[in-house]
Design a protein that fits this description.
Elements lengths: L27 H17 L4 H7 L10 E6 L5 H13 L3 E7 L2 H10 L7 E4 L13 E5 L7 H14 L3 E7 L3 H7 L6 H12 L4 H10 L7 E6 L3 E7 L1
Amino acid sequence: MGSSTQIDFSRRVSPRELPELMDGDCSYEDFRDCLRSLETVNRWLLGYRPTLAWLERLPHGSGDPIHIVDVGSGGGDLLRRIAGWARRRGIAVQLTGIDLNPYAARAAAEFTPKELGIEWVTGDALEYRPKKPVDIVVSSLLAHHLEDEEIVALLRWMEATVQVGWFINDLERSEWSSRMFGWVRWHWLVRHDGPVSFRRAFRKEDWVRLLAAAEVPQEAMTVEHWRPGRLCVGRWK
């Protein structure tokens, strides 16, 4: 308890400075189990709620399937939630998950019913050129894995790529959020990486600086606090 009070949350610690175990070498089994534990984290701590609430503002279109791409899709739990959200509202969607880690597509395919028709892609989103234009890009718990310059590159790619809008759902850097996360005994990888993630996470002033560096129009942005422990950035075009 005493040691945690000495942690400096005033600045964002870079991933190079403070690595997460999940970003290093681990077995497929550990990676898959970690993704399952993260799905539990998202469910218990209402992690899907900000993205789904943002999608509720989706402008009504022509009825053509809306192509939604999840960058850093991991085990695919966000896209499975979006599939359910779209089905309940009668919205036609085409869903694609893209992740650099080849284990991610394997795990997502294992976890996801084939009838949902979600495509899993292994690769760098910034080099992704799909046949069908991308309407919406979402990401969840990806940004804190990236260096500032990588986040700026992602913001620029999203601005250049999406037709309708994009939404980044990530953590808010605070001692309270970090302490709260430690109340539950998660998978051992998640127990290690969780507190690290909060030190690599964001405050509003971080996003203002990163958005300015990416030359995203400030008047088009929303930066929203969601409890517990989320800070989300959205943009409709």
